[in-house]
Write a structure and sequence with these properties.
The complex is a heterodimer of chains A (258) and B (311). Chain A is 75% helix and 2% strand. Chain A has 258 residues and is an all-alpha fold. By secondary structure, chain B is α/β, with parallel strands linked by helices. The chains are: A mainly alpha (258), B alpha/beta (311).
């Protein structure tokens, strides 16, 4: 697809604005995940982890590292777009883009790109912090990179759709609190889903985060509860579906145009 | 000359059934300085919202330099610059970043955007505030920031929705001068304002909108010519004697303030002659009220009365 010069400049401007926003408030956006992850390592890794023993053939600390990194990627890519786009709606500076000849896909790509950048940057910070606690092994770097890119895109799109519908700041915390957090905690971050009774293993199959955490863990440890092909297919389907929904919503001007 | 803006049969009904615009027709010529006046809720901001694609229209066509917003929206948008009524920039962002990003949305490369931002921030006396969070700017500065932002892509048409609301008199006059300069450079300017004096001072053509319809669309000159009567307030040397004027309705407000109504067919010279004969000295003179305001109130009142009668 040929992208015109004007659209490239517009996309770069939105991306720049988004990255500049979360870098400007780095104490709120980049530091907390590093602190949270350190606490997880101290409590689940050092204190409780030693009593748990091995999981999937690895010590517990090594087993949970990929899941914890993925958890921070998910949370940050989602919340970055949700709060930034909602704030742009609330302050009405979203109109700066709406009055300009910026195609809808550029708006979606710009915000999603910004969310992905934050998710990946926080994921990198968390990985570096992890190195203080555990030796990280890498089984397949390509799988790690592809999984983190696709997963951050899924949740950045989710955050954008949340912000489009949100009418108040409360509305952008409801989904993360009541849906995202439970799905993440039940998504195999802290355990292998093979430990669950058969019924709950079946239920876990409908949790998309299971596929993301497992694909990511495969990249590090070479083990996974689900096949990589299935995982990438599920994640890609989510991206296509959510992108389509976001485009329809912005084209119709839901929550943006009266 | 080509029309910068052509609106025909524009209708907008909001969810819930409120019809804000009821079949509006309007044409603004290229290079014009045009006023769109109307009371609160008349449909001015809705009309501007439709032109700038912030509001979805229900019916009608809008063309900007011949480009229909239904078929060539991006081209139409690139001709327009909008200064909205309410502050709609990121209050946490610095003016320079706001301007450069805005230019980027129109495809202006970053280096050129910085050069333009410097030019407009300097012209609008905001250069020393370029790196401050914009929430720290005063109300007048925020208004000027929005003007600078609207100019970043060098639009052919600048639409200003109440640009001088809350701006002090001195600053307002500076803004008027700036807008006149832009118009002289060839930019078509469309202005809505509550300050009728502003429209009278700046605009060549005017449309008055009320209850979603244009009730008057003419040149400012022609509109003002419709006024038959003007009231002058004369400051006179204190006197106990009540001046009397033949053929001019007049009244003494206090011992040094005298009001006279002068019809268009009459000469004001006669007023001075008669007062001089009575030994009354006039020290200064001014118009009692804004002339346009008077006309505006009359037109809107007539429109409302016609509607009531029609019902």
């Amino acid at each position: 697809m040929m992208v015109s010069f004007r659209n490239r400049v517009a996309l770069a401007s939105i991306l720049y604005k988004e990255i500049h926003r979360f870098m400007r408030i780095w104490v709120q956006t980049l530091v907390p995940p590093a602190i949270t992850i350190s606490l997880y390592f101290v409590i689940f890794g050092s204190l409780i982890g030693k009593r748990i023993g091995e999981m999937g053939g690895f010590d517990y600390m090594s087993f949970i590292v990929p899941g914890l990194i993925m958890m921070s990627v998910i949370t940050n890519s989602y919340s970055n777009v949700a709060s930034s786009f909602f704030s742009a709606k609330w302050q009405r500076n979203v109109e700066e883009m709406l009055v300009a000849p910026v195609p809808n896909w550029v708006i979606v790509a710009g915000y999603v790109g910004g969310g992905m950048c934050r998710g990946i940057l926080v994921g990198s910070i968390v990985t570096l912090v992890s190195l203080l606690f555990v030796d990280i092994q890498v089984h397949n770097i390509a799988v790690i990179i592809i999984t983190v890119m696709l997963t951050s895109a899924v949740f950045a799109l989710g955050g954008l759709i949340n912000a489009i519908f949100a009418g108040s700041f409360d509305d952008i915390s409801i989904i993360p609190t009541f849906i995202l957090t439970p799905l993440t905690y039940l998504g195999g971050v802290f355990y292998s889903i093979s430990l669950l009774p058969e019924f709950w293993q079946g239920v876990s199959q409908i949790n998309p985060i299971v596929y993301m955490v497992n694909a990511f863990r495969y990249g590090f440890l070479g083990i996974s509860d689900v096949s990589l092909t299935v995982a990438f297919t599920v994640i890609s389907l989510f991206i296509v579906t959510l992108f389509t929904i976001a485009m329809v919503l912005i084209s119709k001007g839901i929550g943006l145009r009266s | 000359m080509q029309a910068a803006l052509q609106i025909s049969g524009l209708k907008k009904t909001y969810k819930g059934g409120f019809q804000a615009v009821k079949g509006l027709d309007l044409e603004v010529k290229q290079g014009d300085f045009f006023a769109l006046l109307g009371p609160n809720g008349a449909g001015k901001s809705t009309t501007i919202g439709v032109i700038t694609s912030l509001v979805n229209k229900t019916a009608g066509t809008v063309k900007v330099f011949g480009h229909d917003i239904d078929n060539e929206l991006d081209t139409a948008k690139s001709f327009l610059g909008l200064v909205p009524q309410e502050f709609n920039f990121n209050q946490f962002e610095a003016p320079i970043k706001i301007l450069v990003n805005q230019a980027g949305y129109y495809g202006v490369p970053r280096l050129l955007a910085y050069q333009r931002a410097e030019k407009y921030l300097k012209q609008l006396d905001l250069w020393d505030k370029k790196d401050e969070p914009s929430r720290n700017l005063s109300g007048g500065m925020k208004r000027r920031l929005m003007i600078a932002r609207a100019l970043m892509h060098e639009p052919q048409v600048l639409i200003l929705d109440e640009p001088t609301a809350g701006v002090d008199i001195e600053l307002r006059r500076h803004m008027w001068d700036y807008l006149r300069e832009l118009n002289a450079e060839g930019i078509t300017i469309i202005l809505t304002t509550h300050y009728l004096e502003e429209a009278e001072m700046l605009c060549r053509n005017i449309a008055i909108i009320d209850q979603g319809l244009i009730v008057e669309n003419t040149s400012m000159k022609a509109l003002l010519a419709k006024l038959h009567l003007e009231t002058f307030v004369l400051d006179i040397a204190p006197t106990k004697q009540t001046p009397t004027l033949a053929e001019y309705p007049s009244r003494l407000i206090d011992d040094h303030t005298f009001e006279v109504d002068v019809d268009k067919s009459q000469s004001i010279n006669d007023v001075f002659l008669q007062l001089t004969e009575q030994g009354i000295s006039v020290q200064s003179m001014r118009n009692k009220s804004n002339r346009l305001e008077e006309l505006f109130v009359t037109l809107v009142a007539n429109n409302t009365a016609a509607k009531v009668k029609g019902n």
